[in-house]
Amino acid sequence: IGMDEHEWRDADPAVAKACEHALKALSREGVEIVDIRLKGAQHALAIGALTLAAEAYATTAYEFARHMDAYGADVQAFMHIAAVLDAKEYLCAQALRERLRREVAAALLEVDLIAFPTTAKTALPVSQSEERTGRLDAQGVRAMCRYTFLGNLTGLPAGSVPVGLDPDGLPIGLQLVGDAWDEATVLAGMAELERCGAARAPRAPHRATLFESALDV
């Protein structure tokens, strides 16, 4: 399993610590953890956000113009920003996307999986007003998407495994990214985390029961 320490620096210390603990558990089971370097990975969020914005605006601009008030404030802001993007910016992003894909493919010639935290931080708080109007929080979005765009942009299989809770009782995930068409290795890595006890999903102290089972009625 490959691990780029430069990438992990953006993760909250509690998140990084739990994920590193899970990798150490795999190491004790005989899995080799090796250092790799993915220089383009730090730009995956920016490439993905630009790609998503341009494509979302291209497909929904007509409906957005007709029913703008029906959208939350966050989506309205997103669409107004996307409206100023041009073809040159979009095509540059796709060129960088292809460069990133090649870099990750080269790394996967040397390792079977690449490990990242699933998110840079645990779940963000949401106020009642944000539930109604949407959330305008660039830093929060960055924290949630910092590591997940890599698999989306490169088209590679990835899985997230629960590896503990932060001091506030919020769940932490470890992400494993595999090579193209190799979902089996991703699932094998996730299964080994479960077998060795590193993957666990304890109940958070603050939770809501959405459905009652038939036995509880």
In short:
This protein is mostly helical and 217 residues long. It contains nine helices and five strands. A hairpin with a 5-residue loop joins β4 and β5.
Q: What features would you highlight for this structure?
A:
single chain, 217 residues, mainly alpha, 3-stranded antiparallel sheet, 9 helices, 5 strands
- C-alpha termini separation: 46 Å
What spatial order of strands do you see in the largest sheet? Answer: 3-5-4
Biggest sheet layout: 3 strands, antiparallel
What are the low-pLDDT stretches, counting only 5+ consecutive residues below 50?
none
Order of helices and strands: EHHEHHHEHHHEEH
- What Rg do the Cα atoms give? 19 Å
The tally of helices reads 9
Given helix and strand content, the structural type is mainly alpha
Apparent shape: globular
Query: What is the residue-averaged pLDDT?
Result: 91
Portion in helices: 40-55%
Descriptive report:
By secondary structure, the protein is mostly helical. Helices cover 49% and strands 12% of the residues. The chain contains nine helices and five strands, in the order βααβαααβαααββα. It has helices at residues 5-8, 13-28, 44-66, 73-82, 87-107, 128-133, 138-145, 149-154, 183-195; strands at residues 2-3, 34-35, 113-117, 158-165, 171-178. The strands form two sheets. Strands 3-5-4 form a three-stranded antiparallel sheet. Strands 1-2 form a two-stranded parallel ribbon. β4 (158-165) and β5 (171-178) form a beta hairpin. The chain is globular, with a radius of gyration of 19 Å. The relative contact order is 0.17. The mean pLDDT is 91.
